[in-house]
Specification:
Keywords: Dioxygenase, Oxidoreductase
Organism: Billgrantia campisalis
Shape: globular
Pfam family, one: 2OG-FeII_Oxy_2
Mean pLDDT: 92
CATH superfamily: Alpha-ketoglutarate-dependent dioxygenase AlkB-like
Largest sheet: 7 strands, antiparallel
Protein name: Alpha-ketoglutarate-dependent dioxygenase AlkB
InterPro entries: AlkB-like, AlkB-like_sf, ALKBH3, Oxoglu/Fe-dep_dioxygenase_dom
Bound molecules: 2-oxoglutaric acid, fe (ii) ion
Number of strands: 15
Number of helices: 3
Length: about 200
């Protein structure tokens, strides 16, 4: 079988699929997202002080998929056609593995270099429901996503995310683990697209 996926953790399910889009499509779409999206750098409040987010991001999705992230409310941008077709490719790849998923929104993260990063968190906002399924496509520089268990007696681990790989965080991952994209030296541009299903709160 070509493109076998790697089961990193069985329970809760954490799985990496190589080559979602193939070349040259993956490299072309990276350049397109880099230039065509309106990348934002919101300021974050941390320990009572404001800091620029150490990366840029775009929140995209269906118009009713309002979302809170790091204490901020985001209204999604409309689907960019390239992102809409990536969403279809993600859903199709998961379906081919017997996983039924739908996504009404995506957070795109742009890390210009190895200094840019994302701190420890779980994607456990109420809008995502109790057991979200999140699928993350990585484009550009290969970096590790670091995972640690909320039960700190278990060992933390890295998941390396090569260009064009898809990481699936299944039910329970956000409840049991946190993840972070830690700074690393000498790395170039990376863009990740983390697809989610948001259930707007009443
Ligand atoms: O850039 C990554 O791979 C991680 C992104 C992430 O954790 C998120 O969007 O919640
Ligand atoms: Fe996350």
């Amino acid at each position: 079988m070509s493109n076998p996926d790697t089961l990193i953790v069985t329970s809760p399910p954490l799985r990496r699929f190589p080559e979602l889009l193939g070349e040259p499509a993956a490299t072309q779409v990276l350049a397109r997202l880099e230039t065509e999206l309106d990348w934002q750098q919101p300021r974050l409040r941390l320990y009572g002080r404001e800091h620029p987010t150490p990366r840029r991001q775009v929140w995209m999705g269906d118009s009713d998929a309002d979302y809170r992230y790091s204490g901020r409310q985001f209204s999604p941008e409309p689907w960019h056609p390239a992102v809409a077709s990536i969403r279809e490719a993600v859903i199709a790849r998961l379906a081919a593995s017997g996983i039924s998923a739908d996504f009404n929104s995506v957070l795109l993260n742009r890390y210009a270099d190895g200094e840019e990063r994302m701190g420890w968190h779980s994607d456990d906002e109420a809008e995502l429901g109790p057991d979200p399924l999140i699928a993350a496509l990585s484009l550009g520089a290969e970096r590790p996503l670091r995972f640690r268990w909320k039960d700190r007696s278990r060992e933390a681990f890295n998941v390396w995310l090569p260009h064009d790989s898809l990481l699936l965080m299944g039910p329970g991952v956000q409840r049991q683990l946190q993840h972070a994209l830690l700074p690393r030296r000498r790395l170039g541009l990376r863009i990740s697209l983390t697809f989610r299903q948001v259930h707007p709160l009443p």
